[in-house]
Design goal:
Arc Repressor Mutant, subunit A, 17 helices, Rna Polymerase Sigma Factor, Chain: A, transcription regulation, RNA_pol_sigma-70-like, globular, Nuclear Transport Factor 2, Chain: A, sigma factor, alpha+beta, about 15% strand
């Protein structure tokens, strides 16, 4: 973001040292985006919240007395921005699995479509996560942007949500969190306890992969982990060949398939195979480009174009895995106009490029 985008009079005040302030603020952009994304559940909402945070910081920086760190000050502003947004939101962001029962795989209609602000959205890993750092903390970072966990967070009241993210994900102390929220350590500890209890209660009905960051065992986190990369390669091989036997072997028994903005979803590996051979059969012959989304293996899917040749953008697919390396969830975001540019994916693949 340029200084001019941060505030109308930025260019006029650049000579007064605002350039240094802009650089200092921008250094926190990625982690603030990750924080706001976890709080709000929407990638574009998170961008807007960070934009508003930077604007408020610009306007108030003359009053920043340095009694707390710049990072703490920015998180306080970002938290208030998120609270304002959540206070005016008409609906909680959800996933199809949180809105109703699974549908039979032979259904002829996909069900109703809901507005984009109803859904938990995908986010590129590199927009919200550091590229390097402490391995344990990076693992927590990857786990805490998983779609299931972000969806579970949306069931918490805003202050409990902030407490849980600050304490469990960002590893702030109870005292630091209390200072940011203007409350007591006892109140923070109580809010954290209630938030944990709510997630424990909601996890079985949301998805079994919505546990707290760091609670899962495993061989490493993130789509770059060797096991995750191997799983993605096997999945893409089976999917592009449309080999249902090989694909089903990669799925957990109770795996779920869903396609926002449609409210429908299908559960069970045999039902998923039946879906792909039935209503989803036009995906046969697809080509895929791997990306990294929500701390999970993901790819852009392109369907064959029978009119012009090549393949056209169909959906951004995020795979969710359990601790055994089985695919527990397949989420296809169909709004390619929004998601493909954000993930650096082309609108179509030509035959010579996809060979």
């Amino acid at each position: 973001m340029t200084q001019a985008a941060l505030r109308p009079d930025a260019a006029a005040r650049a000579d007064a040292g605002d350039g240094e302030l802009g650089a200092a603020l921008d250094a926190y952009r990625s982690e603030l985006t990750g924080y706001c994304y976890r709080m709000l559940g929407g990638a574009f909402d998170a961008d807007d919240a960070v934009q508003e945070t930077m604007l408020r910081a610009w306007r108030a920086h003359d009053r920043f007395e340095g009694r707390s760190s710049l990072r703490s000050w920015l998180y306080r502003i970002a938290t208030n921005v998120c609270f304002d947004h959540l206070g005016s939101a008409a609906h909680r962001r959800e996933r199809p699995m949180g809105l109703g029962a699974a549908q039979p795989p032979e259904l002829e209609r996909f069900g109703e479509t809901l507005a984009e602000e109803r859904w938990v959205e995908p986010v590129p890993d590199d927009a919200v996560l550091p590229r390097q750092g402490d391995p344990a903390q990076m693992a927590v970072g990857h786990e805490s942007i998983r779609l299931a966990f972000v969806a579970a967070l949306q069931h918490l009241p805003p202050r409990q949500r902030a407490v849980l993210v600050l304490r469990e994900v960002l590893r702030w102390s109870a005292a630091e969190t209390a200072e940011l929220l203007g409350t007591s350590v006892a109140a923070v500890n109580s809010a954290l306890q209630r938030a944990r209890a709510t997630l424990d209660e909601k996890a079985p009905t949301l998805e079994t992969t919505s546990s707290l960051p760091g609670a899962r065992t495993g061989r490493g986190s993130g789509p770059g982990a060797a096991w995750a990369q191997a799983m993605l390669e096997k999945y893409l091989d089976a999917f592009e060949r449309y080999d249902m036997e090989a694909l089903v072997a990669l799925l957990r028994d109770d795996a779920a398939l869903n396609m926002p903005p449609y409210s429908m979803w299908v559960q069970g590996k045999e039902h998923i195979a039946a879906w792909m051979l039935g209503p989803g059969a036009e995906c046969r012959g697809s080509r895929c480009l791997p990306v990294r989304a929500n701390g999970s293996p993901a790819f852009g899917q392109y369907r064959p174009d029978p009119v012009h040749g090549g393949w056209y953008a169909w959906g951004l697919v995020v795979l969710e895995a359990d601790d055994d390396g089985k695919v527990a969830g397949i989420t296809t975001f169909l709004d390619t106009g929004s998601w493909f540019p954000r993930f650096g994916l082309p609108e179509r693949l030509d035959p010579d490029l996809a060979a």
